[in-house]
Amino acid sequence: MTNPLFQKDIISISEFTKEHIELVLKTARELKAHPRNDLLKDKLIGVTFFEGSTRTRLSFETAIHRLGGQVIGFPDAANTSLGKKGETLMDSIRIITSYVDALVIRHNREGAARLAADIAPVPIINAGDGANQHPSQTMLDLFSIYETQGRLDHIKIAFVGDLKYGRTVHSLAEALSLYNAEIFLVAPESLAMPKYILDILDERGIKYSFCKTLEEVIPQVDILYMTRVQKERFDETEYQNLRSKFILTSDMLDTASENMKILHPLPRIDEITTDVDSNPHAYYFKQAANGVFAREALLALVMNKEI
Amino acid sequence: MTAENQKELSKGKLMVEAIANGTVIDHIAPGQAINILRMFKFLSRNTELTVGFNLRSGALGKKDLIKIADVTFSPSQTEQLAILAPNATVNEIKDYKVVDKYNLRLPHETVGDFACPNSNCVTHIEKGATPRFIIRTDKDGTVMMRCHYCEREFSRDTVLRYNGLESAADK
């Protein structure tokens, strides 16, 4: 039977059903346990990062190589015709997609991946479009939750830090709303979760609460999802004040349940102190490593009718 | 005086010159007639135009109304009209008679009519990307418009204001 993601564009987590999510996670688990180097054999995948992102790009390229595929692309737009000669994004996409079997695209403009998908003759995989979507990040987050908790249903998760601009928390909250999650929101008022995400949670009957401190949520959750509070959004005094409230240190984890895990989309700056890295609750580096398997799963499913 | 005007006058209602040919848009939500005039650039056309603001209406309490001579609306223009005036009635007039009458319905989507209010949306840098919105009514009855590209959802009033039109809320 043809898998439902075969030759499909992967643009937005909002288009994923539970069936799709479970298929991707199952495939990621299988590829983690039993690596396959034939699933992209004779396939050429474009990895075009119009906006730089080292970890995401290397993760995709690793996934392609491990599956036996070939890569062409660029790490940023600066030295491309688009960056240097003013070529339109649409023209760039038309040309590049005439060379490749699928295209991974990252762009700083929201909607760039959808635009590419509308005109491309091959599947498009969104590797992040501005503040909008980053579906492979959501898949690796879900995969990490499943790997650590053995389930996705009824997860208690706290989102901490910048919940306003952080697209990873928006997409993950939306995805977990399919699984009756209980959500704790810990953020400064100026970086609160946007109303449209809360509306989705309300529509799906998801329980969520606003919390003031990390200490109050740590004993209650299965997953502590940390994000970076970006310094440039605040003046220095305000930033120092906020920073002190949203920094996780190892001694705060004494009240955590045994299986509680800390996730972070990375890069981590100073919101998780380095003494947490060796704490058994820390999972963020393994989470980043899981990114390769989640991306392998997406690429394998998009490029193979059956696996 | 035409028969149509006579009838209106006899009911103690609005008395305006009837149009021989054209369109009467009735039951426009108050405040939206000005948007319709702007969107279709009726004010810059050299055509006979009658506009009523905040007229008494049984159904709406108040309504706007537009009579425009020698203009009929194409199906795509009717969709645009429906975003501004989702419950309005359109009467096509020929030789002083109503030859077609229909109620507007909010369309499922609109293509190329409004720019996206998200300044970082790809539609602002790519001329070939025609702005497109998927339209729905939320549980509070607010008309919401979601950009096909950047996936941001805005209230219809936000989109109208961004596009230089006035929202009903401004009234």
Written description of the protein model:
The complex is a heterodimer of chains A (307) and B (171). With 307 residues, chain A is α/β, with parallel strands linked by helices. Chain A is built from eleven helices and nine strands. Chain A folds into two domains: 13-133 and 290-303, Rossmann fold; 136-288, Aspartate/ornithine carbamoyltransferase (Rossmann fold), CATH 3.40.50. Chain A has helices spanning 18-33, 54-66, 81-85, 89-96, 112-119, 135-149, 167-176, 195-203, 214-217, 236-245, 284-303, and strands at residues 44-49, 70-74, 102-107, 124-129, 156-160, 182-186, 207-211, 223-226, 261-263. Chain A has a five-stranded parallel sheet. In chain A, helix 1 (18-33) crosses helix 6 (135-149), helix 2 (54-66) crosses helix 11 and helix 4 (89-96) crosses helix 5 (112-119). The longest helix of chain A is centred in the last third of the chain and has 20 residues, at 284-303. The model of chain A has no long low-confidence stretch (mean pLDDT 94). Chain B is an alpha+beta fold and 171 residues long. A five-stranded antiparallel sheet of chain B has the order 2-3-1-4-5, with no helix packed on it. A four-stranded antiparallel sheet of chain B has the order 6-7-8-9. The longest helix of chain B has 10 residues, at 75-84. The mean pLDDT of chain B is 87. At the A-B interface, helix 5 of A face loops of B.
